[in-house]
Design brief:
Length: 427
Amino acid sequence: MKWPSVTLGNLAIDMQPGFAQQPDGDDRGLPHLRTNNVSEDGSIDLSSVKTVTPSAEQRDKYSLQPFDILFNNTNSPALVGKTALFTQDGEFLFSNHMTRIRVHTNLANPAYVARYLHWVWRTGGFRGMVTQWVSQAAINRTQLAKLQVPLPPLSEQRRIVEILDQADALRRKRAEADAKAARILPALFYQMFGDPATNPMGWPRATLGNVIVEAKYGTSVRAASESGGIAVLRMNNIASSGHLDLRDLKYAQLPDEERMALILKQGDLLFNRTNSRELVGKTGLWTESIEAVPASYLIRVRVDRQQVIPEYVWAYMNTRFMKQVLFERARRAIGMANINAQELRSLPFIKPPIETQKEFAQQLASLAPISTCQAMSAECLQTLFSGLLFRAFSSDLTAKWREAHMKELLAEMKEQTKLLAAVRSSN
C-alpha cells in the first residue's frame, strides 16, 4: 500500500511564528519558549525558561495549546528544523524563532507530524530549504508549507506513534541513568577538594597561568568531512560537561611543520575560547590514541606536571564555580563570546597537594569503564531508534500490522481522500 504524500500546508490549519520580547528580569511573567526549549532529541525542555509580559493581544495570538507542534524556524544551519510536540499544562507563549503548527486532526495525528518533522531535521532534510546569512539560517512559513509529508491512515499514524513512543521511553531511561551517573564525578571532586568558590580546605590559591607551560591556538585550516589528512577537533567535539564526543570528526591536510606543532598528546587540555557565552570555556581532556589537532576556536593547554595532574585541572575547569567565572569574564562580540590565552592564564586556581590530585586521577580512571559502557549503550539505542524512524516513515515498520487491519484501513483511506480533496479545494 502506497501512502499519499501531502504538503504540510494542506495538513495545517495554523502555521504561526511567535513574537520577540526581552525577557523579564524577575521571572514573574509568562513562560516564553525559545530555541533551547526544543531539545535535539525532539522533546520540550523546560530546564531553562525565560518569561515575558505580553499584551492581551499577544496572549491570545501566541498561546500554546496541548498537541501544538513547535518548529525551530531560525537557528544555526545545523539546528534549524528541531521539532517537538507541546503537551504541557498551563499558559505558554513562544518566540519569533519558533513556529506553532496546528494540524487537521481528522487528517493527521499531531504526534505523527511532529515525529516526521524532527526526523526530516535529523536526516538533514531542511538544509536545502534554509535561507542562510552569517552564522544563522531560517525557514519561513511559505517554505515550510511546501514540505511533503507521507500520510498513512489515522489509525496507522497512531500505531507508528505508539511504537516510537515505546522506543523513545527506553532512550529516556538510558539518559536519566546517564544523568545520575554524571553526578558522580562532581561529587567526587567536591568530596576530595571542596567547593572552589569558598576553598573550605584552605588550598593554596594561584592563577591558571602559574601551572600552564603552554597555551597554543589551533589550526585555522578549513577542515572537511572526507577522512583524508589529520583529524581536527572542533568546539562541538567537546560536550558542556567536558567529555569528548568524536562521532563527528572533520579532517584537514596540514603542512608537516604545523601538524607536528599542534598534534595532541595524552593529557592535553582543550579549552573552547570562542562560543556562545554559556559555552565559552568548556574544557576537554585528550586521552585518545588517534592523531588529531585542535581547530582555531580551541586552545591546546599543557600543564606543569610537577605541580598539577591534567585530570585534576580538567575537573576543576568544569566545576560550577569555574563555569560561572568564565560566564562573567567572557567578552561579547556579535552574538559570540571570547576568552583569549592571556585571559585564560589569569583565571583563578586552587592547588591541592599533587598526591591528592593523583589519588583523584586514579579514582577517575576507575570510573572510565563505566562511562565507556554507558556511551556504547546510548549509541546503540540511538542507532536502533534511528532505524525505527526510517522504517516508520518508509511504511515498513507497520507493514505486518497493516496487513492484519487492511479492511479498516481501506475504509479510512476512502474517507481520507474525500477530506484531502475538500481541504485542497478550500486552499
